[in-house]
Amino acid sequence: MENILAVLTQEFFYAMIRMASPIILAAMGEVMLERAGIFNLGLEGMMLFGAFFAVLGSFLFHSAWAGVALAMMVGVLLGLLFGWAVISIRANQAVTGTAINILALGMTSMLARMIWGVMDVPLSVSSIDVFAIPLLHKMPLLGYVLFQHSPLVYLAYLSVPLAAFVLYRTSWGLKIRAIGEHPKAAETMGIHVLRWKYAMAIIAGSCATLAGSILSLSFMNLFVDNISAGRGFMAVVSVILGQWNPWGIAMGGLIFGFGNALQMRLQSFGIPIPTDLLLIFPIFLALIVVLISKGSSAARPSALAKPYYKE
Question: 37, 39, 158, 303: most buried, per Cβ within 10 A?
Fold first, then answer.
């Protein structure tokens, strides 16, 4: 019990909130896309691209926010590319997403070496500083855990009520959900299905690359190979675990944030467990979550991953 209490400190819960933020932000974009009937397995690669181009933008323009802007522009382009492949030419959605993951893993590593060369220590760039929310950060216990983070972390959590509001309280959300359930019926009601699908692909790409910029500019101030470390897949799993509801998805993201924070904390305590096993703990947790949630797909959009043929 003493060992457990030694792990579950303020610093642990601070890390959990922080580590969950990129997963939640990427998942919010993914749920908008899946509600429109498209499954994007390429979140991992998009996050990796976002992390790289955020650092590149910060390096070129000497501004972390310029890096964030560049990452989001790349996200728009990736969303358009993915949308063109799965919407216009109706490529297999899972295969297309996997291709983006493979491309990102190789391309970011190659570009980093081409631009900065091979270095023993990765290049450091301008990062996004922590912003303590006035007054709230002085609250006992919760002040440090919740209100002393990067602005991008706050943005990730603000995206949850925003996504819920758009999906369930606006006509836009009604159109998105209608497209994901019965696109042909939505088309007969005057909804431009293809246009909305493209819009959701752009939003998903932008959220994923913005989540990647959290990893490289908020958590650190550098880029390393495979910095996303499976978080894109965790975001996809969070959508399924949360039953395509933003609030449930946020809880799923916090579960994976807990797993990431726990493996980091156990490493710092020097517990005699091989480091490699600790590093795969969050992925193992994702597998367990998938197995537990197997079959619970009542909220799954009916037209998810099905190509749409306009008549």
Answer: 37
